[in-house]
Description:
Oligomer: single chain
Radius of gyration: 48 Å
Shape: rod-shaped
Helix content: over 70%
Largest sheet: none
Order of helices and strands: HHHHHH
Structural class: mainly alpha
Number of strands: 0
Strand content: under 5%
Number of domains: 1
Distance between the termini: 161 Å
Amino acid sequence: MNDDLKELAKSVETIAQITAKILEVMATKNDIKNIATKNDIKNIATKDDIRNMATKDDIKNMATKNDIYEVKSEIQDLRLDLKSFKMETRDSFKELNENYDDLYGSIMHHDKRIEALEEKI
């Protein structure tokens, strides 16, 4: 029985040592409070998200604010050119119509003269 008690004491001592080691590495409630929850993890980027992110080379090739300003300026210039072209085209058609009316009047006058000459012949 004495040997049994020694064995039991030895087993209890071993269990106490193992339990002490477990407690050393086991997280406390405060430790667990700082661990991310499932909801926190939902918003973390996945490997696919990271693969699809822009690289340094992609960013180097992106337009700068100055590039965008230059394009905006060019677009404004094109708008002004287009407005000028529209106005010039309207004026040209107006002038063309006036010239056409004058020309048509002249032709009609000549037609009457030709008809009069033809009647005489």
